[in-house]
Structure formats: C-alpha cells, structure tokens
Amino acid sequence: QKEVEQNSGPLSVPEGAIASLNCTYSDRGSQSFFWYRQYSGKSPELIMSIYSNGDKEDGRFTAQLNKASQYVSLLIRDSQPSDSATYLCAVKPVPSNTGNQFYFGTGTSLTVIP
Amino acid sequence: NAGVMQNPRHLVRRRGQEARLRCSPMKGHSHVYWYRQLPEEGLKFMVYLQKENIIDESGMPKERFSAEFPKEGPSILRIQQVVRGDSAAYFCASSPRIGQGAMNTEAFFGQGTRLTVV
After folding, report:
1. Which position among A68, A110, B24, B64 has the lowest Cβ density within 10 Å, counted as fewest Cβ atoms?
2. d(Cα A16, Cα A79) in Å, to the nearest integer?
3. d(CA A79, CA A61)
C-alpha cells in the first residue's frame, strides 16, 4: 500500500507570514510530486509539481523535495487570506503496467488570519 | 481550450435509482481517474482508466459501481441502486498519454459532480 501522509491541521498563520506544509510518502520509488489547492466546495487545483531533489520556486510558492528522506514540502511566502484552503499532496510512482496512479494525502487545512 | 468537463454538476437521486456521472478529459489526454470525496475528508481513489481499458479499479466498491471509458465519448461512472452513503462529490481528473519511464505528467481536475441521495 502506497501511503501519503500529511498533518491534517488546521494550520493557522498570520497574514504576511510563511506557511509551511509537509508531506511524507512511503513508496521510495515515487518519482513525481504535486501540490494541489482545494477551496471549500471546489475542485482541486494544481499549483506546483516537482520531480528532482531540491527547491522549485513559482511566485510566492516554493516546493521542496528530499527523496532520501521521502519528504516533500510547500512553503507559501507572504501568506494572504486568499491562500486559506486545503492543500493536498499527491505522489506518483514510476509508471508501470498496473497503473500511472496518483496517491493523495488527506490534505492540510490552512487558515491565514488577516 | 476546455479543461476537464464533468456533468452534471449536481445530481439528486432517490434511493434505489441509478446515477450516471460523465467526464470528458482535456484535449490530448487519454488517462482518466475518478475520485470520491466525502465532506471534510480527502480524495479517495476509485478507478483509473485509459481508452477502452480499466487499468486499476482497486478503489471501486465491489458492488453497484462500474466505470468505462469508451473509444468515443466521455468516461462514465455508474452507480446502481444508490444509497444515502453514496452522497459525495465525485471528481474526475485527466492526464496525458505517456510512455514507460516518463515522469513529467500532471493531472487536472474537473469541477466535480455533487451527488445527493434522498
């Protein structure tokens, strides 16, 4: 069973602070990692993908990957109230004949306090 | 360039009726995934399909649920004899066709179908 673990939160940060969201995964063969944002009552929206160890920055978002530790994180700088949402970590192992599956964590609820 | 299209957005069924949920993937995408989400819970994988092929249905309940992705037309998730516990949001996602060993693929979600069983 391939597992993706996230702290369910809720995580509260003041406006302007850095929000740090963490995710661990059990399948050491995982190759692709994704962060989705889901507002209440809406569908998940892809915000970041990362495939190599290290950091990947996109605007106020930075994804960090450490395959040795089986750990991926998302940093949100200068957090805004509009960032308040549930953040889902998704992991994809190497494709095989049995699938090209995405495994999702249960999500971390983030609240940015004005 | 339309994204993943799901319909209907909202579906109300009485207990015992059938529910049919449709998903048209993004243009150029041939992989479709169905997920179920209960209120305040995470996404639960149900089934993964390619055109005319079910690749992984390990998340599908053994009874009443079925899925298909025909050569022409949308993917269909079918729930027979619905019960109150089937009430949930059902999301479809699609990703591009890839070859073995390819890594850089992303999945995009449709807006979901909210099923309510009364």
Report:
1. A68
2. 5
3. 10
Token pair 């993943």 is found at B4
- The one-letter code for the residue type at A104 is F
pLDDT tens-digit readout, B38-87: 887 888 999 999 988 998 898 899 999 999 999 999 999 999 999 999 99
Q: Measured between CA atoms, how close is A8 to chain B, in angstroms? A: 10
Q: Which two tokens stand for residue A57?
A: 């920055």
| Residues 33 through 92 of chain A touching chain B, CB cutoff 8 Å | 34, 36, 42-46, 49, 51, 88, 90, 92
C-alpha span between B42 and A18 (Å, rounded): 24
User: The tokens of B19 are what?
Assistant: 């529910």
